């Protein structure tokens, strides 16, 4: 058989047609040719355990998705100005997973488009412009989404904070100002946020946050935080938006949606990534009242949003979560996975915190016996795991948090392999240092 091209040839080819603004993962990028469930295959005969990609929610190249998508592509793929079953079949199934008040859905093609639309809904419903956003939050790549994403606009190369944005401190009980996560920290952070809302010269249109701040380093909002903040937003006529692009669809184990852990019901929910297992789809779920305000404006139309192929795929994802009990698996395997990381934390002082829930976990890498981020060691771990055929990533304001959020078919044996391998990477690291 033909000798495979060296990786540098692939890198050079890609650089020729692309721009360095599109990054590649790892010091040694991977040339991928295939994937199945929680495994990915490179062009050199290697198999990687995927402990990172949350988009192939029910597993890479899932055969049910392949079957349904092929059937539907061969039958009808068109836009929502025609009536077809898949649209309301999926809409009904999706809405049945939400509290009763959230009874209306709009389909788009990405999380970014969903964030953008959520901003339009907020403006249409409230006639206000001011948006309160979360420190380190990320909501997408459109101009509007960047404007509400502290993670991007606050970057040293970013565009800076726009005048209509209020930025509130992340209610982080590990590194933040208040650290007792029994509800008291959540209340204290909320009081600070409420003060900002009350001090605003202009009324609030919306408050947007993820329930676990992903790009911020997998930081769960302090207990009870939203319960206190939401009423203050609503008192000004504003709406509350939960970005569930990363956290939705059972990944958190205990809950199907992240907002449920905070015992609140948002006015708008943004969905993306896992919704169609990698097929490009996003959605905005809202109330009738907000949808009615929006419908007084210009027509809403998305060429691809809500097409029958997307709806059929998304319905298959929901069915598979249920029939294979994937939320339950996220809970059981996620709890075990966290317990293994916690055991490792007892052995190594460079692990400062293990957090998250279900199969959405962050491991904070710090300078020994401190809470100072250790970016270099986090990168070392990430790259060494990659060299040992395990995919994880790093994120957070200092890029020092190990992120793991695998497909939900991840097993206990997979979890053990990740943590055992990380243990051997750390062992080697400390041996080489003495
Ligand atoms: N919201 C969150 C929380 C996200 O993590 C992302 C993507 N990383 C988005 C929105 C944007 O989604 P997309 O990349 O599909 O536009």
TrEMBL record:
<dbReference type="GO" id="GO:0030170">
    <property type="term" value="F:pyridoxal phosphate binding"/>
</dbReference>
<keyword id="KW-0032">Aminotransferase</keyword>
<protein>
    <submittedName>
        <fullName>Aminotransferase class III-fold pyridoxal phosphate-dependent enzyme</fullName>
    </submittedName>
</protein>
<keyword id="KW-0663">Pyridoxal phosphate</keyword>
<comment type="similarity">
    <text>Belongs to the class-III pyridoxal-phosphate-dependent aminotransferase family.</text>
</comment>
<dbReference type="GO" id="GO:0008483">
    <property type="term" value="F:transaminase activity"/>
</dbReference>
<keyword id="KW-0808">Transferase</keyword>
